[in-house]
Amino acid sequence: MITTRLLAAFLSALCLIPQARAQYSGAKAVPAPLQAGFENISQDDCRSWLTFLSSDELAGRKTGSEGYRKAAKYMADRFKEFGLKPIGDQGSYFQQVTLYRLRRSGQKAHISVGDSHWDEMTGLKPRMSFGDATAEV
Prior knowledge:
Blueprint: H1 2-23, H2 32-39, H3 43-53, H4 66-82, E1 110-113, E2 116-119
Helix pairs in contact: 1-3
């Protein structure tokens, strides 16, 4: 999902560069080796790509879902059209990674310190995170 979001953000930014350059007098010129690529991307191209990537057909693109796979294939097809060299697994545009799904237990999260008690009903919002935390009590 993060990869798809990054790709969508990249394509959005790429689509806006010509307009941004036209509106910002301090904009630097596109480097010569990249100029042809920038000139070949139209607003209609960007609109088409982003419309598909944000469509209901992809059902949110949750990591590992059918919508996620469709979005990844769509982007791989665009990369191939652009002439980008695949450097993923077995000469593809993809890299296999192990994913883990973390879930909260069925028990309600709570914290008690002395006579004070916090739970989800009193504003405690548990989040998945890793690392160490310290606090003064």
